[in-house]
Amino acid sequence: MLFHDRIEAGHRLARALHAYQGRSPLILAIPRGAVPMGRALADDLQGELDVVMVRKIGAPYNPEFALGAVDESGWVYRNPWAGGDPATLKYIESESRVQLEVLRRRRAQYTPGRAPVDPAGRIVIVVDDGLATGSTMIAALHALRGRKPARLICAVPVAPPDVLDKIGAYADEVVCLHTPADFQAVGQFYRHFDQVDDAEVIDVLRASQPGHVAADNPGTVSVPAQVRAASTGLKGGAVHMRLADVTLEGELHPGDGQRLVVFAHGSGSSRQSPRNRYVAQVLNESGIGTLLFDMLTEQEDQDYERRFDIDLLTQRLLGVTDWLRAQAPALSLGYFGASTGAAAALQAAVALRPPVDAVVSRGGRPDLAGAQALQRVTCPTLLIVGSLDTEVLALNRKALAQIGPAGKLVQIPGATHLFEEPGTLEQAATVAAHWFAQHLRGEASIEGS
Fold first, then answer.
1. Contact (CB, 8 A) for 32 and 196
2. How far apart are CA 352 and CA 336, in angstroms?
3. Partners of 339 in the beta sheet?
């Protein structure tokens, strides 16, 4: 498993922790790296963000190798391998005082003029960007346990299995997305693992405070603004969706405000695809909302390999889905994928928690999602293929066998791959509209639609 960056990892953690959404969990991030991740997690779970201050006690010969950790109270956790010889104990005692002073300085810097949020009686989720030795997480959990949270949860994207075994003694629940046996360092599991500086931590925490108004560009929803946008509902027209790594352009039609289909276009295409726009029009006429968006920027689209990077396209689709759900949590969602977009739609459908309610593939390449993803598909999935598109038809039949009972294949008579023959695209659009009308939930509502 490879995470794009910390924010994307935070969104994935939120899907694993969806049972706590809407229960006002307190998300406590370990500075500095986990703070942007904590922001994404708090937004998705509709929780409150703060920091828990702990510091690693690095070895004198290698500061990155943790002998232990210290919390704000001065309590020190010592790793078993640190040993108990007098020289090491003296060093840990001395270094803990140094790190305790750093903690006090940073607390004053990060949360000036206010006390830490009280965890008593709260569902508390402690998040870090990964665990190497687990020292800082153990110190954080120990510090919080004495403040009587209702439930204490450790949430991390990646950690070695033996470290998680230690953590379990300090938390009520441990959530970890990836436990590789070949663990060497946290950063090896991220495409982008840039240092987070104090200024970014301060900005994220300041934006998290009640009453703070972010200076976002009109029409743009940034990560800190996603929860605020939930009360405004979805508005039709051009949208600018700011994700973790990029801003994507789209065109939104809210429809009846209850059901919406997100389009994932094929390689070399865009939100301007005439075939997808026609299908979207048919869905709109039946009251179903649609979002067409560019999965790649103009510059990215010049790189031919990116058009076939299914993992990247999947993460873009997941990011856009997170953007939608932050504004309209009760929305019933479906995916419509064409060509490579179908593979991204199926991978995203498997990764989402809760999942989308239906998927339709038109002339798609579901096989590119991989057998592992296809075998995990549970939402109703319709594969639409032209009867004369023989090669793709064979690939779809093979994919259907892997999907199992959740899948169905429909052939459009006389159609080739692009459904250019008279009446064939209309038939495909009508079949898709019936599928979504049957499987999307009509009782959901969006405020302000």
1. yes
2. 15
3. none
Q: What is the CATH number of domain 220-439?
A: 3.40.50.1820
pTM of the model: 0.49
Quote the CA–CA distance of 287 and 121 in Å, as a whole number: 44
165, with CB counted inside 10 A (0-12, 13-18, 19+), is exposed
Q: Could you state, in order of their start, the residue ranges of all structural domains in the chain?
A: 6-207, 220-439
Same fold, 6-207 and 220-439: yes
Model confidence over 320-348: pLDDT tens digits?
A: 998 888 888 788 999 999 999 999 999 99
Residue 279's H or E segment, with its range, is: helix 274-285
Helices 198-207 and 86-110 pack at an angle, to 10 degrees, of 50
Q: Of 2, 92, 17, whose CA–CA distance to 56 is shortest?
A: 92
Strands (E), 368-419: 381-386, 407-412
Tell me the two tokens of residue 224: 């800190």
Contacts of residue 36, defined as CB under 8 A and 6 or more positions apart, other chains included, come to 6, 7, 10, 196, 200, 204
User: CATH classification of 6-207 is 3.40.50.80, yes or no?
Assistant: no
Handedness of CA 418, 421, 425, 428 (dihedral sign): negative
Which among 382, 381, 352, 357 has a CA at the least distance from the CA of 439? Answer: 357
Between CA 67 and CA 142 the distance in angstroms is 17
Show the tokens assigned to 297.
Answer: 């920027």
Q: Helix (H, G, I), strand (E, B), or coil: what is residue 339?
A: coil
pLDDT digits (tens, 9 = 90+) for 393-432: 999 999 999 999 999 999 999 999 999 898 899 999 999 9
Taken in order 67, 70, 76, 77, the sign of the CA dihedral is negative
